[in-house]
Write a structure and sequence with these properties.
Helix content: over 70%
Distance between the termini: 25 Å
Order of helices and strands: HHHHHHH
Number of strands: 0
Radius of gyration: 20 Å
Strand content: under 5%
Shape: elongated
Number of helices: 7
């Protein structure tokens, strides 16, 4: 039963790893869209400036979380939890900017992303030592018992 739990945890971490990559690339794409729109129309509104400043930060955090998980670095837990906190509090910068009227409505519409963030914090808070290492340790123990 423990082995199944470790396998499920490993699968969830891999799924989150690649979701972080997709969100990082999506954030970069959003910045490029805003910059192109501003260049074409020569109209700069407060939302375009805010999006163009906050999405590169999101992209960096998601990208570093992806890289840490792929490489199995010791700091992956902190970066993954930071990326999941971004998913939970995605609209907080909008509150700071003063556009608070539609924030609650937008937050309620994105409940699935908030649940993904909460589930991700739970997944990355569980101590995990790697599926392969646990699997190999069990094989070594089982062969040493038979010898």
């Amino acid at each position: 039963m423990v082995r199944l739990g470790v396998l499920l945890l490993a699968i969830c971490r891999v799924v989150y790893c690649w979701m972080f990559l997709v969100w990082s690339l999506g954030s970069i794409y959003m910045v490029s869209i805003n910059i192109r729109r501003v260049m074409r129309t020569h109209l700069i509104d407060k939302g375009a400036i805010g999006t163009s400043t906050i999405f590169p930060i999101y992209s960096v955090v998601f990208g570093i979380a992806w890289w840490m998980i792929v490489r199995g670095k010791p700091a992956l837990k902190r970066w993954a939890i930071a990326a999941n906190l971004i998913l939970i509090f995605f609209y907080v910068p909008t509150l700071v900017a003063g556009d608070w009227r539609g924030v609650l409505r937008d937050e309620l519409e994105s409940w699935a992303v908030i649940l993904i963030g909460i589930f991700g914090i739970i997944i990355f808070s569980i101590p995990y030592h790697g599926w392969r290492r646990n699997h190999l340790d069990e094989e070594v123990r089982s062969t040493s018992r038979t010898c």
